[in-house]
Amino acid sequence: MWEFENTGWMRKAARDEAERFDVKHPGGPLRIPDGEATLWRYMDLAKLLALLSKLALFFSAVDALGDPFEGEWSHRTFEMIHEREDLWVHAEDAQVNIEDKTRNQTLVLPRPRLGASDPDTIHHWTMGLNAASVRRKTFVNCWYQADEESEAMWKLFAGEKYGVAVRTSAARLVGSFTERLPDYLGYVDYIAYDKEPMPVSEMPPIFYKRMAFTHEREVRAVSAPTQRATPGDVERGQPGIEYGIDPTHLIEAVVVSPFSPGWLEEVVKKTLQEFQVPVPVETSVMKRPPASKTVSVTARGPKAYFAFRQGQRPARVWAECREHVFEEVQDHWQPSGADESVGVWKESECSEGFAERPEDYERLVSRRLSEGQKKLDPERR
Predict the structure, then answer these.
(1) What angle do CA 86, 87, 91 make, to 5 degrees?
(2) Does position 324 have pLDDT exceeding 80, yes or no?
(3) Which tens digit of pLDDT belongs to each residue from 22-53?
(4) % of residues, the chain, pLDDT over 70
(5) Is 164 buried (19+), middle (13-18) or exposed (0-12) by CB count in 10 A?
(6) For 223-254, how does the pLDDT look when each residue is reduced to its tens digit (9 = 90+)?
(7) CA 53 centroid distance within chain
(8) What is the distance between the alpha carbons of residues 106 and 197, in angstroms, rounded to a whole number?
């Protein structure tokens, strides 16, 4: 896995027996999530059954995802190569740089081989960026990263009624792979394809998508056999491949769609029991009704407070809030102005140990209280 040895939480999370591959630099800055980052995978019930029965996560071929821009370089990347006559080109030992100083953009083209000329390097990447064969041999498994649920993701990926979401963390995901680790794990960056170039490398730009997809907040696990020192046998045109996982380790909880019928939660619980995956099943927080439908709002009543000031006998004040207590004791102890050394605690807070409840004290009542409220004070009864 890319940066595996240099990312402490990955080394700690991964299983010792899981195979790792030496892979090439993915090209550009790959942003790796923190191990505690919360990940969600929204799916219909059938895909959950597939995960549990096969003990595997499905990695889809990039060209089978349905977005024709997946794994494609941006328009601006092509423009900077094909319209280089209007740009500034200069060479370094290992690369050719194409610069547009008016936009402060630079496109770096690594030399395909030692001693390759500038024209040969530009021609190599002009042809390479058009090649589709590598995209067909690159596979991804996609997750939504956020602490909370997403209504858009529920509706787009979990179906209208019978949907669930698997909640996990980046560390749980890495630690769930039982046979081999994916080659890369990172955030997707969202850019304007007509304005921004992408880093050029032998790996297709699978960590980039158009701005229209920012709602996906995507983290991707990627299998890229062509980027390995030992690629292995991957057939061209495969719709996808599977990676063995331990569902019990992967799944922190299964959340049931807020748009599902009430009985689905019990079905999901029984399904997990049958597959012997003891993880909690939760109702979506989006199913919670508004507070106005569930909370009984009552007027705030007076309570007993204790006020403390060094050199003064503590005071017990029957009042509606701390602010009123301050007003009463400041008038009582120091009419000339505020005293920041005054401490005020509820009687209940004293009982819980936040302050010592005095045995001897003065009794005061807030002048703001009505006669009826004053009679509520237990010590007046």
Answers:
(1) 140
(2) yes
(3) 999 998 889 999 999 999 999 999 999 999 99
(4) 96
(5) buried
(6) 999 899 876 666 666 889 999 999 999 999 99
(7) 27
(8) 8
62 touches 226 (CB < 8 A):
no
Which one-letter amino acid corresponds to residue 337? G
Provide CB contacts within 8 A for 216, sequence distance 6+.
142, 144, 153, 188, 209
Q: How many CB atoms lie within 10 A of CB 80?
A: 23
- Six-digit token pair at 270? 């029984």
What H or E segment, with its residue span, contains residue 305?
strand 303-308
Is 80 exceeded by the pLDDT of residue 336? no
- Distance CA(337)–CA(339), nearest Å, equals 7
CA distance 359 to 377: 18
Cβ-based neighbours of 199, under 8 Å, separated by 6 or more: 27, 28, 29, 108, 205
CA distance 338 to 9: 52
List the beta bridge partners of residue 41.
Answer: 166
Q: What's the predicted TM-score (pTM) here?
A: 0.80
221: enclosing H helix or E strand: strand 218-223
